[in-house]
Amino acid sequence: MELLAVAALVTVLIVAALAATAVAAVVVVRRLVLAATTTAGMLTLRATSYGVGQRSETARLRLALRTELDAVRRALAVASAQRWPVGDAPALVARLRHAAEGVDARLRIVAGEPRRHAARPLLPALRAEVDAVVRAASELRVALLAGGAALDGDELAALRADCSVEARALRYRQA
């Protein structure tokens, strides 16, 4: 009877391990597909941005949005990881992302508009919106980075002196 219970427990553990492995594999595949799709989209957007005309201009504006939002997300991640004060920055980054998604959607529509002359009057307003989002994200990113614990001159001098002492000690041991 005990042997049967042990066999059942082993079977349950094996099934659970297989299920966990399958879930992990699905998560990895989804992340890889998302990364490949995002990379392909960025490459297409970057290639389109090198041209001339309305479609190229919308691609450049979309790239500016993405680049700035990626930079502010990375700055927030670094600040959070270093336990620097971030205040309301996570909520502001979410609001910036939401605003950028709206502007990006309109830019995609303008880029795909078959009658270029119909969409041309929309570009100045979209350009102004992109500039406003980029400026806000840039200002937030700079504030996040400035909020980090900076070393002052004395701390840097003490750190350099300690490193010099350690370097001399290591060289002495090797000699």
Word description of this protein:
This protein is 86% helix and 0% strand. It folds into 2 domains: 1-50; 52-150. α1 packs across α2 (54-81) and α2 (54-81) packs antiparallel against α3. The protein is flat, with a radius of gyration of 26 Å. The relative contact order is 0.09. The protein has 175 residues and is mainly α. The protein has helices at 2-49, 54-81, 89-112, 116-119, 123-146, 153-174.
Distance between the termini: 69 Å
Count of strand segments = 0
What Rg, in angstroms, do the CA atoms define? 26 Å
Number of domains: 2
By DSSP (H or I, 4+ residues per run), the number of helices equals 6
Major β-sheet profile: none
The shape is flat
Helical fraction equals over 70%
Low-confidence stretches: none
Mean pLDDT: 81
Q: How much of the polypeptide forms β-strand, as a percent range?
A: under 5%
Return the string of H and E elements: HHHHHH
Structural class: mainly alpha
Write the layout of secondary structure elements.
Elements lengths: L1 H48 L4 H28 L7 H24 L3 H4 L3 H24 L6 H22 L1
Short overview:
By secondary structure, this protein is mostly helical. The chain has helices spanning 2-49, 54-81, 89-112, 116-119, 123-146, 153-174. It has two domains: 1-50; 52-150.
Keywords:
mainly alpha; 86% helix; 175 residues; 6 helices
